[in-house]
Specification:
Elements lengths: L1 H10 L6 H7 L3 H7 L6 H22 L5 H12 L1 H10 L10 H5 L6 H19 L1 H22 L5 H11 L5 E9 L6 E8 L2 E8 L2 H17 L2
Antiparallel strand pairs: 1-2, 2-3
Helix pairs in contact: 2-8, 4-5, 4-8, 4-9, 6-8, 8-9, 10-11
Catalytic activity: Endonucleolytic cleavage to 5'-phosphomonoester
EC number: 3.1.26.3
InterPro entries: dsRBD_dom, RNase_III, RNase_III_dom, RNase_III_sf
Protein backbone atom coordinates (compact mmCIF):
# COMPACT_ATOMS: atom_id res chain seq x y z
CA UNK A 1 0.00 0.00 0.00
CA UNK A 2 2.87 2.38 0.77
CA UNK A 3 4.25 1.90 -2.72
CA UNK A 4 0.90 2.99 -4.18
CA UNK A 5 0.73 6.08 -1.98
CA UNK A 6 4.27 6.97 -3.00
CA UNK A 7 3.38 6.60 -6.67
CA UNK A 8 0.25 8.73 -6.27
CA UNK A 9 2.47 11.53 -4.97
CA UNK A 10 4.60 11.23 -8.10
CA UNK A 11 1.55 11.13 -10.36
CA UNK A 12 -0.08 14.11 -8.69
CA UNK A 13 -3.42 12.33 -8.48
CA UNK A 14 -5.12 10.80 -5.43
CA UNK A 15 -7.23 7.78 -6.28
CA UNK A 16 -10.60 7.41 -4.59
CA UNK A 17 -10.33 3.68 -5.27
CA UNK A 18 -6.69 2.70 -4.93
CA UNK A 19 -7.47 -0.75 -6.31
CA UNK A 20 -7.77 0.81 -9.76
CA UNK A 21 -4.16 1.97 -9.56
CA UNK A 22 -3.11 -1.47 -8.34
CA UNK A 23 -4.81 -3.04 -11.37
CA UNK A 24 -3.10 -0.57 -13.71
CA UNK A 25 0.27 -1.71 -12.35
CA UNK A 26 -0.47 -5.44 -12.59
CA UNK A 27 1.13 -7.05 -15.62
CA UNK A 28 -0.57 -10.07 -17.18
CA UNK A 29 2.46 -12.24 -16.38
CA UNK A 30 2.08 -11.47 -12.66
CA UNK A 31 -1.65 -12.21 -12.78
CA UNK A 32 -1.06 -15.59 -14.42
CA UNK A 33 1.71 -16.46 -11.98
CA UNK A 34 -0.38 -15.57 -8.91
CA UNK A 35 -3.79 -16.72 -10.11
CA UNK A 36 -5.34 -13.24 -10.25
CA UNK A 37 -8.41 -12.57 -12.38
CA UNK A 38 -7.37 -9.01 -13.26
CA UNK A 39 -4.46 -7.28 -14.97
CA UNK A 40 -3.90 -4.00 -16.77
CA UNK A 41 -4.55 -4.75 -20.45
CA UNK A 42 -8.21 -3.63 -20.43
CA UNK A 43 -7.23 -0.40 -18.68
CA UNK A 44 -4.47 0.07 -21.24
CA UNK A 45 -7.00 -0.12 -24.08
CA UNK A 46 -9.28 2.36 -22.35
CA UNK A 47 -6.40 4.68 -21.49
CA UNK A 48 -5.18 4.71 -25.08
CA UNK A 49 -8.58 5.98 -26.27
CA UNK A 50 -8.87 8.54 -23.46
CA UNK A 51 -5.34 9.79 -24.14
CA UNK A 52 -6.05 10.23 -27.84
CA UNK A 53 -9.24 12.24 -27.39
CA UNK A 54 -7.68 14.48 -24.73
CA UNK A 55 -4.59 15.23 -26.82
CA UNK A 56 -6.64 15.68 -30.00
CA UNK A 57 -8.96 18.14 -28.27
CA UNK A 58 -6.04 20.05 -26.74
CA UNK A 59 -4.15 20.34 -30.04
CA UNK A 60 -7.30 21.29 -31.95
CA UNK A 61 -7.94 24.22 -29.61
CA UNK A 62 -4.30 25.24 -29.09
CA UNK A 63 -3.16 25.15 -32.72
CA UNK A 64 -6.06 26.46 -34.87
CA UNK A 65 -3.67 27.25 -37.71
CA UNK A 66 -2.61 23.64 -38.26
CA UNK A 67 -4.15 21.50 -40.98
CA UNK A 68 -5.73 18.12 -40.26
CA UNK A 69 -2.60 16.40 -41.52
CA UNK A 70 -0.27 18.38 -39.27
CA UNK A 71 -2.55 17.96 -36.25
CA UNK A 72 -2.56 14.22 -36.84
CA UNK A 73 1.23 14.16 -37.18
CA UNK A 74 1.73 16.13 -33.97
CA UNK A 75 -0.70 13.95 -32.04
CA UNK A 76 1.05 10.79 -33.23
CA UNK A 77 4.39 12.13 -32.06
CA UNK A 78 2.96 12.85 -28.59
CA UNK A 79 0.99 9.66 -27.90
CA UNK A 80 3.56 7.23 -29.28
CA UNK A 81 5.67 4.81 -27.27
CA UNK A 82 8.80 6.97 -27.00
CA UNK A 83 7.32 9.99 -25.16
CA UNK A 84 5.16 7.79 -22.92
CA UNK A 85 8.25 5.75 -22.03
CA UNK A 86 10.09 9.00 -21.28
CA UNK A 87 7.37 10.00 -18.82
CA UNK A 88 7.45 6.56 -17.18
CA UNK A 89 11.24 6.49 -16.90
CA UNK A 90 11.30 9.95 -15.28
CA UNK A 91 9.27 8.65 -12.33
CA UNK A 92 10.94 5.23 -12.26
CA UNK A 93 7.56 3.64 -12.97
CA UNK A 94 9.11 0.23 -13.57
CA UNK A 95 9.88 -0.13 -9.88
CA UNK A 96 6.15 -0.01 -9.08
CA UNK A 97 5.09 -2.67 -11.59
CA UNK A 98 3.93 -6.12 -10.55
CA UNK A 99 5.71 -8.55 -12.87
CA UNK A 100 6.29 -12.29 -12.93
CA UNK A 101 9.71 -13.62 -12.00
CA UNK A 102 10.45 -14.30 -15.64
CA UNK A 103 9.54 -10.77 -16.68
CA UNK A 104 11.75 -9.34 -13.95
CA UNK A 105 14.67 -11.50 -15.04
CA UNK A 106 14.23 -10.30 -18.63
CA UNK A 107 14.16 -6.68 -17.40
CA UNK A 108 10.51 -6.15 -18.22
CA UNK A 109 10.46 -3.29 -15.72
CA UNK A 110 12.73 -1.35 -18.09
CA UNK A 111 11.14 -2.37 -21.39
CA UNK A 112 9.88 0.77 -23.22
CA UNK A 113 6.73 -0.90 -24.59
CA UNK A 114 5.75 -2.26 -21.16
CA UNK A 115 6.27 1.10 -19.46
CA UNK A 116 4.40 3.02 -22.18
CA UNK A 117 1.50 0.56 -21.91
CA UNK A 118 1.45 1.05 -18.14
CA UNK A 119 1.17 4.83 -18.53
CA UNK A 120 -1.90 4.25 -20.72
CA UNK A 121 -3.32 1.85 -18.13
CA UNK A 122 -2.89 4.47 -15.40
CA UNK A 123 -4.69 7.03 -17.58
CA UNK A 124 -7.53 4.54 -17.97
CA UNK A 125 -7.61 4.03 -14.21
CA UNK A 126 -7.75 7.78 -13.55
CA UNK A 127 -10.63 8.09 -16.04
CA UNK A 128 -12.63 5.37 -14.28
CA UNK A 129 -11.79 6.74 -10.86
CA UNK A 130 -12.43 10.45 -11.40
CA UNK A 131 -14.14 10.87 -14.76
CA UNK A 132 -13.13 12.64 -17.95
CA UNK A 133 -12.34 16.04 -16.41
CA UNK A 134 -9.97 14.47 -13.89
CA UNK A 135 -8.32 12.43 -16.63
CA UNK A 136 -7.89 15.55 -18.77
CA UNK A 137 -6.17 17.48 -15.99
CA UNK A 138 -4.00 14.47 -15.23
CA UNK A 139 -2.95 13.83 -18.85
CA UNK A 140 -2.18 17.46 -19.67
CA UNK A 141 -0.19 17.85 -16.46
CA UNK A 142 1.70 14.63 -17.08
CA UNK A 143 2.48 15.35 -20.74
CA UNK A 144 2.79 19.16 -20.74
CA UNK A 145 6.59 19.16 -21.20
CA UNK A 146 6.32 16.52 -23.94
CA UNK A 147 3.62 18.48 -25.79
CA UNK A 148 5.64 21.71 -25.72
CA UNK A 149 8.87 20.00 -26.72
CA UNK A 150 7.26 18.05 -29.57
CA UNK A 151 5.42 21.08 -30.93
CA UNK A 152 8.62 23.13 -30.82
CA UNK A 153 10.70 20.66 -32.84
CA UNK A 154 8.01 19.55 -35.30
CA UNK A 155 8.33 20.78 -38.86
CA UNK A 156 4.89 21.90 -39.97
CA UNK A 157 6.09 23.64 -43.11
CA UNK A 158 5.46 20.69 -45.42
CA UNK A 159 3.52 22.78 -47.90
CA UNK A 160 3.78 20.17 -50.66
CA UNK A 161 1.96 17.54 -48.59
CA UNK A 162 -0.67 20.04 -47.47
CA UNK A 163 -1.27 21.20 -51.05
CA UNK A 164 -1.60 17.62 -52.25
CA UNK A 165 -4.06 16.76 -49.47
CA UNK A 166 -6.26 19.77 -50.19
CA UNK A 167 -6.24 19.30 -53.96
CA UNK A 168 -7.05 15.60 -53.71
CA UNK A 169 -10.07 16.44 -51.55
CA UNK A 170 -11.24 18.72 -54.37
CA UNK A 171 -10.72 15.96 -56.93
CA UNK A 172 -7.40 17.06 -58.45
CA UNK A 173 -4.65 14.48 -58.90
CA UNK A 174 -2.30 15.82 -61.59
CA UNK A 175 0.15 17.89 -59.52
CA UNK A 176 3.60 18.46 -60.99
CA UNK A 177 6.66 20.45 -59.93
CA UNK A 178 9.24 21.78 -62.35
CA UNK A 179 12.51 23.64 -61.87
CA UNK A 180 12.06 26.40 -64.43
CA UNK A 181 15.50 27.97 -64.06
CA UNK A 182 18.70 28.13 -62.04
CA UNK A 183 20.87 31.13 -61.25
CA UNK A 184 24.32 31.61 -59.77
CA UNK A 185 27.50 29.55 -59.48
CA UNK A 186 27.43 25.94 -58.31
CA UNK A 187 28.47 26.83 -54.77
CA UNK A 188 25.75 29.48 -54.43
CA UNK A 189 22.97 28.43 -56.76
CA UNK A 190 19.38 29.64 -56.58
CA UNK A 191 16.60 27.41 -57.91
CA UNK A 192 13.22 28.58 -59.20
CA UNK A 193 10.30 26.15 -59.17
CA UNK A 194 6.78 26.14 -60.52
CA UNK A 195 3.88 23.90 -59.52
CA UNK A 196 1.13 23.04 -61.96
CA UNK A 197 -2.29 21.51 -61.33
CA UNK A 198 -3.83 19.81 -64.35
CA UNK A 199 -1.26 21.65 -66.48
CA UNK A 200 -2.10 25.10 -65.10
CA UNK A 201 0.60 27.05 -63.16
CA UNK A 202 -0.66 27.84 -59.66
CA UNK A 203 2.47 28.82 -57.75
CA UNK A 204 6.14 29.73 -58.01
CA UNK A 205 8.97 29.87 -55.51
CA UNK A 206 12.73 30.04 -55.12
CA UNK A 207 15.26 28.52 -52.77
CA UNK A 208 18.84 27.40 -52.25
CA UNK A 209 17.83 23.83 -53.07
CA UNK A 210 15.32 22.30 -55.45
CA UNK A 211 13.37 21.00 -52.45
CA UNK A 212 13.13 24.45 -50.86
CA UNK A 213 12.07 26.02 -54.15
CA UNK A 214 9.28 23.46 -54.56
CA UNK A 215 8.10 24.04 -50.99
CA UNK A 216 7.95 27.79 -51.63
CA UNK A 217 6.00 27.17 -54.84
CA UNK A 218 3.54 24.99 -52.94
CA UNK A 219 3.23 27.66 -50.24
CA UNK A 220 2.33 30.28 -52.83
CA UNK A 221 -0.16 27.89 -54.44
CA UNK A 222 -1.85 27.33 -51.08
CA UNK A 223 -2.14 31.08 -50.62
CA UNK A 224 -3.52 31.64 -54.11
CA UNK A 225 -5.95 28.72 -54.12
CA UNK A 226 -7.05 28.48 -50.49
CA UNK A 227 -5.92 31.68 -48.81
CA UNK A 228 -3.71 29.59 -46.51
Amino acid sequence: MERLKELMDLLGYRFNDINKLDEALTHSSYAYEHGLDYYNERLELLGDSVLNIIITDYLFVTYPELSEGNLSKLRSNIVSEKPLYKVAAAMNLGSYLLLSRGEKLSHGDMRPSTLADTVEAIIGAVYLDGGFDAAKVFVLSLLAPIIEETAAISNFNDYKSELQERLQIDGYSDIKYEIIREEGPDHDKMFFAEVKVDGKPVGRGSGRSKKDAEQKAAQQALSELFGA
